[in-house]
Structures are given as C-alpha cells and as structure tokens.
Specification:
This protein has helices spanning 38-47, 52-58, 72-86, 89-94, 137-147, 165-168, 182-196, 200-216, 220-234, 240-247, 310-322, 338-350, 379-387, 389-415; strands spanning 7-8, 18-23, 29-35, 63-68, 101-105, 113-117, 129-134, 266-275, 278-288, 291-292, 298-301, 331-335, 357-362, 369-373. The chain is of the alpha+beta class and 417 residues long. The chain has three domains: 7-94, GIY-YIG endonuclease (3-Layer(aba) Sandwich), CATH 3.40.1440; 101-240, no CATH class; 260-415, UvrC, RNAse H endonuclease domain (Nucleotidyltransferase, domain 5), CATH 3.30.420.340. Strands 8, 9, 10, 11, 12, 13 and 14 form a seven-stranded mixed sheet that branches. The protein has a four-stranded mixed sheet with strand order 1-4-2-3. A three-stranded antiparallel sheet has the order 6-5-7. Strand 2 and strand 3 (29-35) form a beta hairpin. Helix 5 crosses helix 10 (240-247), helix 8 runs antiparallel to helix 9 (220-234) and helix 11 packs parallel to helix 12. The protein is globular and about 75 Å long. The N and C termini lie far apart (70 Å).
Length: 417
C-alpha cells in the first residue's frame, strides 16, 4: 500500500505502460522511471527492498505523477527525454558513477545509429542526432532490434561484392551492395529519428497520406509496404523490451576456484564447413566441465547465404541458435580470427545477448594457435583463456570434426539422389 502522506495523481495507477515521476514536497522531480505496468512497478517501491539510494529517496517523496504511453517502447523514449530535461538527482545516483548510454546517429552519407557511453561522446564532433541518456542498455538494444524490422538501417560499408547478413533478414536496405540511394536511405533515417523523438502519431499520419497517394498512382508494392509500417506502429508488441531485463543472466561468472577444465562451465564451439560454397553447414558442439556433451550438439544447414562466405554463414548459425535461447553458455568459441569474432559479436549485440567470445586461428607459422577476443571480454577472462588454451583447442577441434562429418554426409546424400 502507498504511504498515505504521498499524493498520487488521480488517486490511482493504471495497468498500462508509461513513465512515473517521483516528486518532493516542493514539486521538484527526484526520479523518473519507465514501466510496462505503471501500477505494478510503482507499488514495488512500497513492497520490495531496494538499494540505499532508493531507500533514501523514498524518505523525500511526497507526490507521484505519471504519464501513460501507448507502448513500452514509447515509455523508454519518454523516460530518456524527461531525464535529459530534468536530470533528476536519484537517476544520476542510480548509475553509481557509471556513464549513461546515448543513441547517436552518425553524420555521413549513410548515417548509422550507434550506442555510445557519455564518456565516449567526442566533444566538438558533429553528430546528426543524439538521444539519451538511457538508463537501460538492454531495453534500448531491444527497442532498436524491434524497430529495425520496419526502419532498416545499415551498419556496413558501401561497395561490397556480397550483401551483408542483415540484407538477408531485410534489416539492411542494401547500402553494402548499392541497392538504395542516399536520398532513399536518408528518409529511413529521418523517420527513425522522428520515432525516437516520440513522434509516432506524426509518422502514422504521414504514412497514411503516402499510402493513399501510392495507391492512386497504382504503386501497389509501395502502398503495401506503407501499410505494413502503419500496422507495425499501431500494434507494436514490445512488452518484452523491458521485461527482458529480468531474465538476462550475467554473461560470465568466475571459475570454480580449482582451475582447469571446470573453470568455464558450458562452452559452445562453432564452425562452418563447405567446398566451393556448396552444401554449406554449421556445427555447434558443447563442452561441460571440460568434456563433450554430445546430446547438446546441433547441426545447421545454411539457408540464407549463397556461395562460400564463412563469416555470413557463421552469423546465420548464431542468429538461429540465439534468437530463441534455451540455455546460455558461459563462453562462445569460434573457429576463426577477428573477422569471425566481430561478426559473431554483431549478431549477439543485435539480440541483446552479452556472452564473451573467443576465436582460435592458426598463427603466422601455422604452428601455434592465436586467440582473439570480443570487446566485452575482460582481462581476467583473457588470462583464463590463455592459461587453459588446451581446453579451448579441444572444443575448436571437435566443432571442426562435427562440421566436416555433417558436410560429408550431406554431400553423400545429395550425390545419391
């Protein structure tokens, strides 16, 4: 039950998404928060234990205001805009001296949305647009993943010979292979910026006008695409954007203190196999407590990537594996170097999953194995991998063997048809 000395707007809280504002006796905003359910979230302040700074804040709260939003993603956007406007004291304390996250649009021919910590924003650099601060990186990444389905943007470099992985998913409009003009791409980015400015209703009105015009001009494909965008904006299924945070587990937990093979818990190893781009397959092997667990192995027949492109094939495998996570490994091991590790990291980031990645590739003399790490791998993790590289090499070799076996069996079955 809410403290009787606290004044609540309309004396009630709705079960809808929105933003709530904690105020002191003088009406000063102490804290801004977002919620999937305003009623459920605000009541938690009076029924569940919190950190010291929240416990302190509640001593000064004398009023709770709230603003309903149509969706959770709109609550995420509004929260960031209000924090930027008011800079409430207890939002700042909540970061525990860590930097806030910002959504930045680069100022270039084909702008990219990037997530950057406040400490990494370059002074004097002209960004196309900066949004934030955001209190939750997980929610922001989930929101970006969701809206990319209707506002596809590029993270690749123009002038590539092959389309990037996101072209296959229809989440990149083809900047990499030159299938979209600067003018057409600029409109996508303008609309995406309007969305993060909280102008969903403006976009809906604009798309409805454009759809009617396209239909009158018999441009039915264009009209159908605009209708898809309208339906998306009208029926965003985004509750998971904030609820997702509750189910995310720490990416890497320390060892069991005994060193050796038990240190990493569950390791998943991945490899790609093909000959001249035919019968491409991927493998996933699992080691637990230093030993293979073959009941957890998985095979992947490459479906989206044509020809010999191991990097894109690896991205397809990881996307299919982690889009519906049944168990999370402590470590992901890739057979390959930095290109493979970076490509794998891109997929995990798009799915809002943070798991340390390590790649193993042969060194220059082909006599040693070099290790390559993802950007979220800390020094202690790197040291552990170097210390226990023999175990990681076993995982890599098993992934390679499993991929080769599946590839050979697939080619044999194909040749018999």
């Amino acid at each position: 039950m809410i403290d009787p000395q606290i004044k609540l707007k309309n004396k009630q809280l709705p079960e809808t998404p929105g933003v709530y504002l904690m105020k002191d006796a003088h009406g000063k905003i102490l804290y801004v928060g977002k919620a999937v359910s305003l009623k459920r979230r605000v009541m938690q302040y009076f029924t569940k234990p919190h950190g010291e700074h929240i416990e302190e804040m509640m001593l000064y709260v004398r009023a709770i205001d709230w603003i309903p939003t149509g969706t959770a993603i709109e609550a995420l956007i509004l929260e960031a805009n209000l924090i930027k406007h008011y800079w409430p004291k207890y939002n700042i304390l909540q970061k525990d001296n860590k930097s806030f996250l910002y959504l930045v649009f680069t100022n270039e021919d084909f702008p990219k949305p990037l997530l950057i910590r406040g400490t990494d924003l370059e002074e004097g650099k002209k960004y196309k647009k900066v949004f934030g601060p955001y209190t939750s990186g997980l929610s922001l990444r989930a929101a970006l993943e969701l809206v990319r389905k209707v506002f596809p943007w590029s993270t690749c470099t123009p002038g590539q010979k092959r389309p990037c992985f996101y072209v296959h998913l229809k989440q990149c409009p083809g900047v990499c292979i030159g299938t979209i003009s600067k003018k057409e791409y600029a409109k996508i980015i303008r609309d995406l910026i309007k969305f993060f400015e909280g102008k969903k209703d403006f976009l809906l009105r604009q798309y409805r006008r454009e759809m009617k015009t396209a239909a009158k001009q018999l441009k039915f494909e264009q009209a159908a695409e605009l209708r898809r965008k309208i339906r998306f904006l009208e029926h965003i299924q985004d509750v998971a954007i904030m609820k997702r945070e509750e189910s995310i587990t720490p990416p890497y937990e320390g060892g069991d203190g005994g060193g050796g093979s038990g240190l990493f818990g569950r390791i998943e190893g991945y490899d790609i196999s093909n000959i001249s781009g035919t019968s491409s397959v991927g493998s996933m092997v699992v080691f637990e407590n230093g030993a293979p667990n073959k009941s957890e192995y998985r095979k992947f027949r490459i479906k989206l990537v044509k020809g010999s492109n191991d990097v894109a094939s690896l991205q397809e495998v990881l996307f299919r594996r982690f889009r519906n996570v049944w168990r999370k490994p402590k470590v992901i091991l890739i057979d390959g170097g930095l290109p493979q590790v970076h490509a794998a990291e891109t997929i995990l980031q798009s799915l809002n999953i943070s798991i340390p990645l390590v790649g193993i590739a042969k060194g220059p003399e082909r006599k040693r194995n070099d290790l390559f790490f993802s950007s979220n791998a800390d020094e202690s993790f790197r040291a552990l991998c170097l210390e226990h590289h023999t175990l990681l090499e076993k995982v890599r070799d098993e992934a390679h063997r499993f991929a080769i076996t599946y590839h050979r069996n697939l080619r044999r079955r194909t040749s018999l048809r």
